[in-house]
Write a structure and sequence with these properties.
heterodimer, A: mainly alpha, B: mainly alpha, 2 domains, 3-stranded antiparallel sheet, 6 helices
């Protein structure tokens, strides 16, 4: 019986670790900040959750389980917030690959001036660029 | 402190309860000493670092809440797998998009929950939230064409629907129905 439990915990831990690895890979492979933030939130959160589940199965005693539950809850609460803050700043400073965007409704909205001019990084693509097909 | 200190305390009660719960969970065992010290710590935190009171509050409906949680867990697993595959997939990154979706909810707390959830479900990440216009700007990691973009927008609205049905008041649920004063579509000017 305990073998089954161990295998279950092992599966959770390994899958979680693998998902965290893909989050890291995504950070390297994705082309711009906004896409990278996707990698930093979703597989990351799921990976941490799975590691927590695996650890909760393997560790005995409720006190550890409660702690792991808290880690999971705070991970889910904080990861979207930090990703939002980073990507918001990135968008405003035009760290965006506009040639990869199919539509950008934030830019065509009347909130044009929310894109700060003169604040962009040196390697930002020119502002007037329309996406080439 | 002004007169309605009792009202203020009542607004802070959920926060106090949450802080005490976190404290007890951190200690891992239940005891009266933990409870009392937790209350002391929670009071100290709320008095020393006051936060603006959250108006409105939540009304939790159990059955829609279960539906929402089930959907959310499924979405979480799906989105993790999807983005992981995007990261591993050979070849270049495909097109993404930024869209604005006008929500029908007008409550700070509900908007927070919606924005959090949208960031965790497949393919979307909240970029900006215009509180007065009630629009959120969402970055979509991977879109195929314009039809797919519309599909994703509908997905955000469906998510709002589930959140409001699980946590919203009767008036807020009524505001979800089409035919009310606002059109549910985001303003999608080309």
């Amino acid at each position: 019986m305990s073998v089954v439990v161990d295998v279950l915990a092992l599966g959770c831990l390994l899958t979680g670790a693998f998902l965290c690895l893909t989050a890291g890979l995504g950070l390297v492979r994705f082309p711009d900040v906004l896409s990278r933030m996707h990698a930093g939130t979703k597989p990351q959160v799921l990976g941490v959750l799975l590691v927590m589940v695996g650890a909760a199965i393997r560790l005995h005693g409720w006190s550890a389980t409660w702690m792991l539950l808290l880690v999971a809850v705070f991970q889910m609460l904080t990861a979207p917030v930090s990703a939002h803050m980073v990507s918001r700043v990135a968008y405003r400073r035009r760290h965006v690959r506009r040639d990869l965007l199919l539509v950008d409704e934030l830019r065509t909205a009347e909130a044009q001036d929310s894109v700060h001019r003169g604040d962009e990084p040196a390697d930002a693509p020119p502002d007037g660029r329309v996406q080439p097909s | 402190m002004s007169g309605p200190a009792a009202v203020q305390l009542r607004h802070q009660l959920p926060l106090l309860g949450w802080l005490v719960l976190v404290w007890i969970l951190l200690w891992g065992t239940w005891s009266w000493a933990n409870l009392l010290s937790g209350i002391a710590v929670a009071l100290a935190v709320t008095v020393l670092l006051p936060l603006p009171a959250v108006v409105g509050g939540l009304r939790v409906r159990p059955v829609p809440l279960l539906g929402f949680l089930g959907h959310f867990l499924l979405d979480l697993v799906l989105s993790g797998a999807q983005v992981a595959w995007q990261a591993l997939r050979p070849g270049r990154q495909r097109q993404s998009a930024i869209v604005r979706v006008r929500l029908r909810t007008d409550s700070d707390l509900l908007l927070t929950i919606i924005a959090q959830t949208v960031s965790l479900v497949p393919g979307s990440l909240v970029l900006d939230l215009d509180r007065e216009e009630r629009t959120i700007a969402v970055h979509l990691l991977h879109v195929r064409d314009l039809g797919h973009v519309e599909l994703e927008k509908a997905g955000v609205l469906a998510m709002e629907d589930r959140v409001v049905r699980a946590f919203g008041s009767t008036a807020e649920i009524a505001a979800l129905d089409p035919g009310s004063d606002l059109s549910p579509q985001g303003r999608s000017t080309p």
